[in-house]
Amino acid sequence: MRGWNIRGGSITIGSRPLVMGIVNTTPDSFSDGGKFDTADLAVAHAERLLDEGADILDVGGESSRPGAEGVSAAEELARVLPVVQKLAGRSGVVISVDTTKAVVAKACLEAGAAIINDISGAAFDGDMPATVRQFQAGLVIMHMQGTPRTMQQNPVYADVVGEVRDWLGDRLHQLLDAGLELSQIAVDPGIGFGKTTAHNLRLIRNLGTFSTLGCPVLLGVSRKRFIGEITGKPVDDRLAGSLAVACQAALTNSAHIIRVHDVGPTVGALKMLDAIANAVPAVE
After folding, report:
1. Whether pLDDT at 205 is above 50
2. Tell me, which fold does domain 2-277 have in CATH?
């Protein structure tokens, strides 16, 4: 076991992946946009995810679906800050905020968030590394080819696994040079962010290679388009495919945090796998 240092303490990374529950406050996210777009609805949803066993809540106020337009920092803050403020008072709740904007990160960290989940790898806003360092917060850096608006416009790689790993490695070095500690950072290969279905499958199959970066690995595949392309299922019927990927990652010990919409089924599946793996073998 090892720890992931976040604001206010450390999270233990053990044999079973942690489950990060998604709390979207956006009107236009690909899966649940508009369902939780008021603070009260989002907080009620977050509390359900906690009851279902979420280890971390990831609150987001700007859609990153393919083709999505950006929103202003003021609009993003209006969506996420009241939710963070309401949740931060709950004992033992670990809050992550999904943002690329340092001003949003700062306000949410001041309100009690512990982790910043930045899909740009903390590269879109030059003030983000200093903000994370100031609060000694946890940071997830993700790889993305392009921006949400452009990322699915013919993504091309010569070696998707090697290129994504090298980019994350380079970004890690830049963040360490900016004063962050390796123990604060988790990496995410960015499934579906500037990747084709074939790229996504190669990354998932070779997910273990990202552990060589020395950080926890976060995997986010929940309900994504490539699952629909493979299974033929619409976005609200992709639980089986999402669970299959989560279980494969758990069995291969290649993901340490799994970001999902469907917390209860994911927690149950991971507990079952863990119980089987740790069962006392029969005496011969």
Report:
1. yes
2. TIM Barrel (3.20.20)
